[in-house]
Design goal:
The structure holds two protein chains of two kinds. Chain A is built from six helices and 14 strands. Chain A is α/β, with parallel strands linked by helices. Chain B has one domain: 3-Layer(aba) Sandwich (Glutaconate Coenzyme A-transferase). At the A-B interface, helix 5 and helix 6 of A face helix 2 and helix 3 of B.
Chain lengths: 229, 221
């Protein structure tokens, strides 16, 4: 097995260029690649399109900020494709002010659209959203008397994911509910940057415990934060 | 003269009684989360959390929270022995695939056709649907949990929802702090009322068509 290049968070951020679509793992900040996000915030690249479960937590009064929220606060996204913005009032403000476009996607549909992109499918058929605003502009297909929406695959340019452990080949193991969207995002982009808490030699992982096979991963970044508490 | 007072605990207490053991249940954020407190210890209900686990346990003891173990509201939780973690595609496969028996959700509006609105008030509050649309479309039985009236006194049960729908015609059961209703045949069928309210009071204070079930009774809670 070939070793993947281990790069710094700053080098990882340089791979994200203006206008790109960026898939980011994490669920309200649980399982977010925080070191790479911090470097990308520092770098300040704008006009990005975000694909992520949510825009995380931005609670200025409570002093709580998580996940991709620093990038939202920096106004680095032109558009966000997410299932939830309720814990980040800044996203809502930007949406109302016409500064950022927000596409809300049901969470299960988002997971499947990303998975479809990584798994060679043009899209998926789901009953979720039938009879709601979500069906607007979409093809409805009836199979065996049940209506489904055709939801198209959602690929991107760069995926930023977070794993607990990796070997130098790039095999990834996630931790508990920090797994969430990470294994899906890791399939859907040509460049996949995995931020990891622990990096072991090739052979140091049992092939049976690997969640994301190494071939999906392009670069590894040693996490500077988010070590087990 | 009966005066309405919000009582979330009675809603949670009544919903917990639907479970006999062995069911897979997803509890939404807020009021539905309270239901877990009233499931009897001798009944094994498998709680699913859409961020990627089954076997959801109670909140951790102080100092025992783990950054990688949260519920769908980003609160620290625990996992029970025999539980399992999975990714978001598997989580929503479980949900849409009919492997969740009950989903309990909060409500902005619910109507007598079983339509549910709980994710958006256009121009005012747009948090997004998160996993709610999949949960309502996919779970076998959908329970809407809500206080009966708004702070203004307006009924949360409607003839027809006016807000954007989370899902169309998927709600099976509505439990409020005045009673338990089934959604059947385009009306709310009152199955139980909770003291001090009466069926007459409920009819008078609900902006929807209510029919009394043949076995309608006062709940012993």
């Amino acid at each position: 097995m070939t070793e993947k290049r281990v790069i710094s968070a700053a080098e990882a951020a340089k791979l994200v260029k203006e206008g790109m679509t960026v898939h980011v793992g994490g669920f309200l900040g649980c399982g977010s690649p925080d070191s790479v996000i911090a470097a990308l915030a520092e770098q300040g690249t704008t006009n990005l399109v975000l694909v992520c479960n949510d825009t995380a937590v931005l609670d200025q009064k409570g002093g709580r900020i998580s996940g991709v929220a620093p990038l939202v606060a920096n106004r680095q996204f032109r558009k966000v494709i997410v299932s939830h913005i309720g814990t980040n009032p800044e996203t809502q403000r930007q949406m109302n002010a016409g500064e950022t476009e927000v596409e809300l996607v049901p969470q299960g549909t988002l997971a499947e659209r990303v998975r479809a992109a990584g798994f060679g499918l043009g899209g998926i058929l789901t009953p979720t959203g039938v009879g709601t605003e979500v069906e607007q502009g979409k093809q409805k297909i009836s199979l065996s008397g049940k209506d489904y929406l055709l939801e198209t695959a959602l690929s991107g340019d760069v995926a930023l994911v977070k794993a607990k452990k990796a070997d130098k080949a790039g095999n990834l193991v996630y931790s508990m509910t920090a797994r969430n969207f990470n294994p899906l995002m890791a399939t859907a982009c040509p460049v996949v940057i995995a931020e990891v808490e622990e990096l072991v030699e090739i052979g140091g992982l049992d092939p049976d415990e690997v969640h994301t096979p190494s071939i999906f991963v392009t670069y590894l970044v040693q996490s500077e934060s988010g070590r087990p508490s | 003269m009966i005066e309405y007072h919000e009582n979330k605990e009675i809603i949670a207490r009544r919903i917990a009684r639907f479970f006999h053991g062995g069911e897979v249940v997803n509890l939404g954020i807020g009021l539905p989360t309270l239901v877990a407190n009233f499931i009897p210890k001798d009944k094994t209900v498998i709680l699913q959390s859409e961020n990627g686990l089954i076997g959801l346990g109670p909140a951790p003891e102080p100092g025992k929270a783990h950054k990688d173990l949260t519920n769908a509201g980003f609160m620290p939780v625990t996992i029970l022995p025999g539980g399992a973690f999975f990714d978001s595609a598997t989580s929503f496969g479980i949900i849409r695939g009919g492997h969740v028996d009950y989903t309990v959700l909060g409500v902005l509006e619910v109507d007598q056709e079983g339509n549910l609105a709980n994710y958006k008030i256009p121009g005012r509050m747009v948090p997004g649907m998160g996993g709610a649309m999949d949960l309502v479309a996919g779970s076998r039985i959908v329970i809407a949990a809500t206080t009966h009236c708004e702070k203004s006194g307006a009924s949360k049960l409607k003839r027809r929802c006016t807000l954007p729908l989370t899902a169309a015609k998927e709600v099976d059961i509505v439990v409020t702090d005045v009673g338990y209703f089934k959604v059947e045949g385009g009306v709310f069928v009152l199955k139980e009322w909770f003291e001090p309210y009466t069926p007459e009071w409920i009819k008078e204070h609900t902006d929807a068509d209510i029919v009394l079930a043949p076995d309608c009774r006062k709940a012993e809670l």
